[in-house]
Write a structure and sequence with these properties.
- With 122 residues, this protein is mainly β.
- The protein has a single domain, classed as Trypsin-like serine proteases (Thrombin, subunit H).
- 8% of the residues lie in helices and 57% in strands.
- Strand 6 and strand 7 form a beta hairpin.
- It is elongated, with a radius of gyration of 17 Å.
- It starts with a helix and ends in a 14-residue tail after the last strand.
Length: 122
């Protein structure tokens, strides 16, 4: 029970300057497309967020635009004894974040692989 509720939904989140854990909180298939969401800490992915000045022709001036780089999410495979026997990496985009709450939500770019183990969010 512990392995399916805690260990299997846990992933590694890798950014350019930090590594941390994350939890698969949603994975569902709709209209032949899978959507998978991972909850992690903002401080893990904060180095992937920056701002850039870009020209806005409608305003006739430069405006600040937020740039969000991709994170890497590593999902682990376990045997019957809860020993890690492999891993698979996925690219993920930053969907939302709250720096003060130190939370970030990532969405995997893989739209084909459904994750059978998702944490119970209460």
């Amino acid at each position: 029970m512990l392995i399916t509720q805690v260990i299997k939904p846990t992933v590694l989140v890798r950014a350019e300057k930090a590594i941390g854990s994350g939890t698969i909180v949603y994975s569902s298939k709709s209209e032949d497309k899978v959507r998978t969401l991972v909850l992690t800490c903002h401080h893990v992915i904060e180095g992937l967020i920056s701002t850039q000045a870009v020209w806005n022709s409608l305003l006739g001036r430069k405006v600040r635009r937020e740039i969000r780089k991709r994170a890497e999410v590593v999902n682990f495979t376990y045997n019957q004894n809860a020993e890690c026997v492999g891993s698979t990496s996925y690219n993920a985009r930053i969907v939302a974040y709250d720096a003060k709450a130190d939370l970030a939500l990532l969405e995997l770019e893989d739209t084909e692989h459904l994750f059978p183990y998702v944490a119970d969010v209460i």
